[in-house]
Amino acid sequence: MCEEFASLMGSEFEMSMMGELSFFLGLQVKQASNGTSICQEKYIKEFLEKFPMLDAKPIVTPMGTNSKLDADDSGPMVHETMYIGIIGSLMYLTTRRYDIMFSVGMCARFQACPKESHLKAAKWILRYLKKTEDLVLLYPLEDSFELVGYADAYYAGYQVDRKRTLGMAHFLGSSLISWGTKKQIEWLFLQLKHNM
Q1: Tens digits of per-residue pLDDT, 60-93?
Q2: Are residues 119 and 187 in the same domain?
Q3: CA separation for the pair 124, 118 (Å, rounded)
Q4: Residues 70, 84: one domain?
């Protein structure tokens, strides 16, 4: 079937078959008899090298348990371009690293006017990535096709505007296939409350 598909596509488009996928857009893909695994270890190492954090002390959580980021109006400013670069690279990682999504989202809110406290929180995430750079998403070959979704809300936890943060995750069998977090819009919450 693969050869037939390649022949059909080759007759319509200019293309070449490069064999089994192993590396694509920063993703390392390994196909084995028990399933397919995806990780970003190489990308993370390059990322840590770009923002000199290779020698940083690794930690086990993506954000401190008592971390409450706010606008920090009185805090010292940091280099905006560097901070935006770190956040942009972290945002790309969230496409396969659901464990950092909430922390990155919190730090991303302060790109317009980053302060030292925000940079410290972003570097905390980098130290966590150093500890977990070899984390893998595994998609087993023999798995069920039962779709299950989970959602949760963090009420009034954001210190600046007190809006809720929603989080969700979807699994196909035992494989995580979709995740996300979002700051809740107030009118949506009121509308849902009214409909109950």
Answers
A1: 999 877 667 788 888 889 989 999 999 999 998 8
A2: no
A3: 10
A4: yes
